[in-house]
Each structure stands twice: as structure tokens, then as C-alpha cells.
Specification:
Blueprint: E1 2-6, H1 9-26, E2 31-34, H2 41-52, E3 62-65, E4 67-69, H3 80-87, E5 99-100, H4 109-122, E6 127-130, E7 152-155, H5 158-164, E8 177-180, H6 183-187, E9 191-196, H7 202-210, E10 228-233
Parallel strand pairs: 1-10, 2-3, 2-6, 3-5, 6-9, 9-10
Antiparallel strand pairs: 4-8, 7-8
The protein binds 2-amino-2-deoxy-6-O-phosphono-alpha-D-glucopyranose.
Length: 240
Amino acid sequence: MDIHIFRDHDALDEHAANIITQQLLSVPESVLGMATGSTPIGLYNKLTEKHAAGQISFRQAFTFNLDEYVGLEKSHSQSYYEYMQKHLFRHIDIPTEHIRFPNGMAEDLEQECQRYNKMLAEQPIDVQLLGLGHNGHIGFNEPDEELVQETHVVQLEPSTRQANARFFESMDEVPTHAITMGVGSILKAKHILLIVKGEDKADIVYQALKGPITTQCPASLLQTHPRLTVFLDEQAGRRL
Ligand code: GLP
């Protein structure tokens, strides 16, 4: 595991953007695993800038997003699809048909999970970006006795709904379920880039990277990955 601690967010986001840039420069048709949340916004801004400056093209690239809420239309302001459009896709040259997303509005959610698994099997992810939930979740894989390997429907923890409530008008509007890639699917990525920012994540960063490998902290399974890069700000890396 390769851990880097950055003094400021700008340097962290720049280095993270360089990893994606290098990947696309060496393999233009790379498959990128994308994450949502507040953490990668700075990185997506950097990629947008590099694209505008002509330093990077996504024309041949493919993306898979980790997760999506169940029951929100793609066009809903808080859907992860809309998040990606707003923070990255609308500003770059990726063809729409190269964007892979779980459909949280599918009538048959089980079938939708199978469709996503099939696509993931056909197009292995080269670089998977990840953020970290306060309870150690990755994607929407919540702490549990057992973790599901592949894409599945998950009931969101009250603490996760609470954490994400800031983006919705009221708690009632926060979806109760989501579709997420499983931890097994995430671990299949050739390279994983975990980004964590903020003092409030210092304890969970420590548990995830230095604590026991346990399904009670899904991110701790990342310790088993042969190519894990971790970018932290000083606050998130305080306990390491
Ligand atoms: C969300 C997402 C995760 C994300 C995490 C942290 O619930 N499903 O993919 O990594 O929470 O979000 P943030 O970066 O806003 O702290």
C-alpha cells in the first residue's frame, strides 16, 4: 500500500488528477471507476481543467460508477448520475454511450445488478477511485456480518442517510436503498486510488488502513489489494 499525505487539497487533487491523466495517456481506452461524494469534486475540477487545456481526452475512455440511489430519476438533482454530469461528464469529451451507471429506477433491480455485473466482467476497471464513508463504507457497502461480492441492492444505514441528508430538502427525501458495486467487484480493479479528506475521517482511516481486516469496516478489505494508492490530507492522516 502506497500512502501519501498532502498538506493542502490542491496538491492532493492535482496528484490524483495526474494518476488519471497518466493512465489515459498510456491507455486511451482505459476503464475508470468513478466515485461520488464531496471528496472527489476537487479532482474532477482538475480533470475538467486539464481537459479544457487540451492535456487529456476521454474520447476513448469508459467509466463505471460505483453506486446509485434507488428511486431517483437520472435527472434528479441528487442522483449520482446528475452529480457526475455536473462535476465531470458535461465538461469533457467522453461519449455518453461509454458511461456505465447502475439504474436505480429499473423495474427489476436484481436483473439490473446482473446487467451491471456482466458489463464489469467484460470491461475490467483499470483505475478505481474511492472515497470513504464515516463508518468505513466504500461505494455503499455498509459494515455487516457478511459483505456481498458483486453488484447488489443495499439498505442504507441511518448514519449514511443522515450524512447524505445535507444534499436533500428533508430526511424523508433521502433514499432508503441504493445499488452498489460489491467489495469483490471493487477489489478486481487493477489499481485502486482511495482519497480521504478531513479530521472527521481520521479514526476511520486508521481503522481501515491499520486496523484488523473485517467486514465491520468494508474499507479494511482494501488492505488485501496488491496495488492500493491512498491520498490523504493532513487531517485525515493524523493518526497514521
Ligand atoms: C457516499 C458515497 C461514497 C462516498 C462516501 C463519502 O455515501 N456512496 O461513494 O465515498 O459517501 O462521501 P464524502 O466524500 O462526501 O464524505
